């Protein structure tokens, strides 16, 4: 299992790793043999090349050959990426505790910690619930027709100009 940080470091001719459908491939020795040229692979080095691989429409033989260069897979979250993305920018402590993560998962979290949020910077749940998105007051409806006034005027002027210059000839 390889992390994206690890994979991204293999992005040159001396060490060319490409991820295809979650599998990490060391294509360093295949660069000169690649029918599409080594530039294609070097352009994807250290990245996910799944989309490019699929768009080319590789043969079954190419797919089998690809397995020969597989060195592992990408480390992923067992619950999927969506679970993590839902918590971005929030205090995820409660969500983490609710799942009942193992002690291994708790130990793993330590290496991803980038800092500590001070108590004074935390906002309470009640504060978050009472905050609302500011609304724009619609007023008495005048702004609705006023927003169309300029486009209508431009359209009328364009029609008059067209008739004057092109139909009068």
UniProtKB/TrEMBL annotation:
One of its GO terms (cellular component) is endoplasmic reticulum membrane. It holds the Pfam family Cyt-b5. The keyword Signal does not apply. It is found in: Membrane. PANTHER family: CYTOCHROME B5, CYTOCHROME B5 A. Belongs to the cytochrome b5 family. This is Cytochrome b5 heme-binding domain-containing protein. It comes from Graphocephala atropunctata.
